[in-house]
Amino acid sequence: MLVFNHMPSPLPSHAAYLLAGGRSSRMGENKALLNFRGLTLLDRALATLSATCASVTIVGDPVIFANYGPVLPDIFPGCGPLAGIHAALTHSSAELNVMLAVDTPFVSVELLRFVLRKAGDTRTIVTVPQTARGLQPLCAVYRRAFASIAEEAIRSGRYKVDEAFADVPIHMIDERELAAAGFSEKYFFNVNTPEDRRTADSLG
């Protein structure tokens, strides 16, 4: 497991959910179990989330992840990350909920706590970073009220997360604000393909 030195205790009033339900079709194997710098992407993300929030739950296949702690299946299987977010928020009793994709190995505790602080300063439903590549909805903080928005979108056949944002007020943390806080675009790098895996190895 990763070891975080001199970090404060996990935040007890917030919940974290690790979205690990993807099919990994472009990777050719389950990317959650892919080794990266001595740890699987799953273990790396769980360590980061566990140092951020006291409550951490995997959203994915309960059979595959049975040995990794609480696992929550999608209520609407096969509908992508939006279904994972919906299942998490339906399950959660916390007002602020961190959502993190399992394939983002450079996300740090500091970044997640930064986004949580921004979420706590606003009453908007979603607080989401925005980089040059666009919104980062799988490294964001959601209030429970988004559950009904997500369900309505899924039932109407709209499965893209950022399309559901059109129905709610969101707070975007833009590139300049992220950079000023010390967070570059590298933090949001996704490992979706073998080429991405090689690129990740080359990043500092």
Number of DSSP E strands: 10
Structural category is alpha/beta
Low-confidence stretches: 1-6
Largest sheet: 8 strands, mixed
Shape descriptor: globular
CATH superfamily: Spore Coat Polysaccharide Biosynthesis Protein SpsA, Chain A
CATH architectural name: Alpha-Beta Complex
Share of helix, binned: 25-40%
Write the layout of secondary structure elements.
Elements (H helix, E strand, L loop, with lengths): L10 E9 L15 E2 L2 E2 H10 L2 E7 L11 E2 L8 H11 L4 E6 L7 H12 L5 E6 L2 E2 L3 E5 L2 H10 L5 H4 L5 E4 L1 H6 L13 H9 L2
Parallel strand pairs: 1-4, 1-6, 4-5, 7-10
Antiparallel strand pairs: 2-3, 6-9, 7-8, 7-9
Helix pairs in contact: 2-4
What features would you describe in this structure?
It is a single chain. The chain has seven helices and ten strands. By secondary structure, it is α/β, with parallel strands linked by helices. It has one domain: Spore Coat Polysaccharide Biosynthesis Protein SpsA, Chain A (Alpha-Beta Complex), CATH 3.90.550. Strands 1, 4, 5, 6, 7, 8, 9 and 10 form an eight-stranded mixed beta sheet that branches. A two-stranded antiparallel ribbon has the order 2-3. A hairpin with a 2-residue loop joins strand 2 and strand 3. Helix 2 crosses helix 4. The two termini are 20 Å apart.
Sum up the structure in keywords.
single chain, 204 residues, alpha/beta, Spore Coat Polysaccharide Biosynthesis Protein SpsA, Chain A, eight-stranded mixed beta sheet, 10 strands, globular, disordered N terminus
